Structure formats: structure tokens, C-alpha cells
Amino acid sequence: METLFRKYLKGDTTLWIVFIALCILSIIEMYSASSTLAYKASNHTAPLLRHVGFLTGGVLIAFAVHLVPYKYIRIISYVGLIISAALLVFVLFKGHSENDAARWLVIGGVQFQPSELAKLSVIIVAADLISRIRDNKKDEWIYFRNTVIMLLGVCGLILLENFSTAFILFVVVFIMMFIGRISMKYLGSMAGILLVSLFIGYGAVKAIPEDSMPHMFKRAYTWVARIERHSDKNEKASKYVITDKNRQEIYGQIAIARGGVFGVLPGNSVERDYLPQAYSDFIYSIIVEEMGLIGGILVIILYLILLFRAGQIATKCSSVFPAILVIGLCLMIVIQTYINMSVATSLIPVTGQPLPLISRGGTSILITCIYFGIILGITRQIKEELPVEEEAPEMPEDTMPVVELESL
């Protein structure tokens, strides 16, 4: 196994193990969680085979990407940013709607989310801009301004249909700027403007009737309703009544409760047949139901290992760009993970965030695999840049120095 990793799978061995473990867990749980899709399909194995196909393609993409020097990824990201911004505009007018949100494009029979490509491009470009900041205060303001303009432009396009994705991307880039030592006065002003904007937006939704609101902003009423339903403490009597609005949360809680400590074992889930989006947004509930508390904690540990290793990798980078990039990509995976888990455990309102690498979804899987590929590629280059320690040559016995002893 060690020879395999050294010969073919370059980069950090621990990250490869985490990556492969998540892919295997995804296949096992998707086999169970996609039962409703299998029932509807003419071929009962089609949903699972589709998922395995995306994972296989994702692994191959990760392998290919981890062989590409990050200096080329740095250049390509600007092209990706332009393309993703154009697609985000296009999806607002020609997007395919699911769950009352137009987030998908269907081109040539292939459905994908432009926001996933946008997240990847923004993180790489932000890492590049932050890394260009020098001690000169003028340089800091120029690159901070450019980063904020890019971030607000992309997040604004994503926000119209997907608040949680836009918010996560904003937070990740904000943390990247903090780690990149952007002046606190800039970051403080940025955070203050965000809070004021959220307050004004919430007030506008409460004050303006939905019929009078422009169509592109009507998605905001769904967000506000979810937040208020989640935070309403006066509905103690009705929270045990399953309705169309709380169906996901209630069945998610039931699935977690059934899991106990050891779970009912993979393939024996009951709530998968009742829980909407059991194979996507609420797959963590199915994991806990089938693998119990132990399995749920194991999944959390895998993502924590990723976060811990990313921190270690960043400290070993010889320049700022790869260090900031590793942190940004890892944070995007981990923050999205724990938001998904928080939704499944009813800690926060429903957001629609998938569990990276585990939930069903072609675009999300492929882009997440690119995240891993870039991180593994950076660790590969770090290993190659390390000087090889030369071993001291062994001296033959007949050339060993002779130490003369003084005669007594």
C-alpha cells in the first residue's frame, strides 16, 4: 500500500486515505438512501450506478489535477471565473428549477450548477489576489478592493437563488483575507456592511408584501420563513405534527433517534422511504440511522482530519499563494459539511447544502474532487521541493582510520 501511494498517488498519504474513505462511505450510504429513486427508475440500479460513475470520474479528475503544478491552476482560474460569471447570469433567465430555485443549467442533456464552478474559481482568484499584497499599504488596498469587487459580484449572482452558498463563499474568502493579514480596519468595515445589509434585507422582506416584490427577490421570503419557523419557540404543540413545511426536519430527527449508538446497519434504514432528499441534503441523518452515533462521529472525524492536515500543509508552503489556497479550499469543504450536519440535526434552518463527496449530485462531486486534487497537488510539490538528505557513504573496513594508542 505504501509503495502504491509513493509511486502513483503523489501528495499527502493521509489526505488520500480520507478522500478514498469518503468515496467508499458515499457508495455504501447512497445504495441505501437512494431507495426512492431506485423504486421510480425502470432500472433499480441506475441511481447507484450513476453515483458510482460520478465518483469514479471524480477520482480520475482528482488524480489528474494533483499532477498539475498550481502555477497553471492560478492562471486557469481567471478563465473559470469569467465563464462561471456568464453562466450565473444565464441561469437566472434559462435556469432549470427544482425546489422553487433555479440553480441548474441543462445543456446537451447534462445538468450542472454554475455556482459550484464559481465557488472554485473565486477561491483560487482570491488566494492569488491576497498573495500579491506586499508591505506597501497602497498594494493592500488595491488587491483588497479587487477581491471585494469580485466577491460581491459573484455572491450577488448566487444570492438571488441560493443564499446559503453565497453566504458560505463570502465567509470563506473573509477568513482567507484574515489569514492573509489584511488590515483589520478593512475587514471590520466589510463585516459591518454585511451585517447592515442583512438587517436591511430582512426588514425589506418583512415590510414589503410578496406580491409587490420583484420576481428575482421573491426567494428571500422562503429564507425568512425557514428562519422564523426554526426559531419560533411557541410552536411546541405543533412541532410534533408532520406537515409539508417541516417534513424534512421531523423525519430527519426520527432517523437520527432510531440510530442510537450502533445504528441499524447499512441497508436497514426505514426513514429513507419517508425522508425527502434522504440521498442529498439529509443523507447525514441516514448515516446516523444506519451507523449510529459511532458512525456519525467517524464521519465528523474524517472531515476534521482534513482540516487539521490542511493547517499543517499551509505552514509548510514556501509561498503565500498555495498556503492561502489550501486553507480556502479546505474551509469550503468543511464549513459546507458542518452546515449540512447542522441542518440534519435541526441546529439551523434547512439550507439545501449537500454533504461533500457523500450526497448525490454530479456537479458537487466533481468540483469537490477538484478541491482535493488541488490540495493533493500542492502537497506533492511541497514534497518535491524538500531537499533530499544525503546519506553518509559507508567506508570500507580497510580504509577505516586507525587510532594509535599511546604505549603505556
TrEMBL record:
Record flagged with keyword Transmembrane: yes
**Which Gene Ontology cellular-component terms appear in the entry?**
cell division site; plasma membrane
Keywords for the protein's UniProt record, in alphabetical order: Cell shape, Glycosyltransferase, Membrane, Peptidoglycan synthesis, Transferase, Transmembrane, Transmembrane helix
Protein family: Belongs to the SEDS family. FtsW subfamily.
Gene Ontology molecular functions: lipid-linked peptidoglycan transporter activity; peptidoglycan glycosyltransferase activity
Name listed for the protein in its UniProt record: Probable peptidoglycan glycosyltransferase FtsW
Q: Where are the transmembrane segments?
A: 15-39, 51-69, 75-93, 142-160, 166-184, 191-209, 282-308, 320-339, 359-378
**The organism of origin for this protein:** Paludibacter propionicigenes (strain DSM 17365 / JCM 13257 / WB4)
Pfam families hit by this protein: FTSW_RODA_SPOVE
Domain of life here? Bacteria
Give the catalytic activity: [GlcNAc-(1->4)-Mur2Ac(oyl-L-Ala-gamma-D-Glu-L-Lys-D-Ala-D-Ala)](n)-di-trans,octa-cis-undecaprenyl diphosphate + beta-D-GlcNAc-(1->4)-Mur2Ac(oyl-L-Ala-gamma-D-Glu-L-Lys-D-Ala-D-Ala)-di-trans,octa-cis-undecaprenyl diphosphate = [GlcNAc-(1->4)-Mur2Ac(oyl-L-Ala-gamma-D-Glu-L-Lys-D-Ala-D-Ala)](n+1)-di-trans,octa-cis-undecaprenyl diphosphate + di-trans,octa-cis-undecaprenyl diphosphate + H(+)
**A GO BP annotation:** cell division
Q: How does it sit in the membrane?
A: Multi-pass membrane protein
- List localization entries: Membrane
Entry EC number(s): 2.4.99.28
Spell out the InterPro entries in the cross-references. FtsW/RodA (IPR001182)
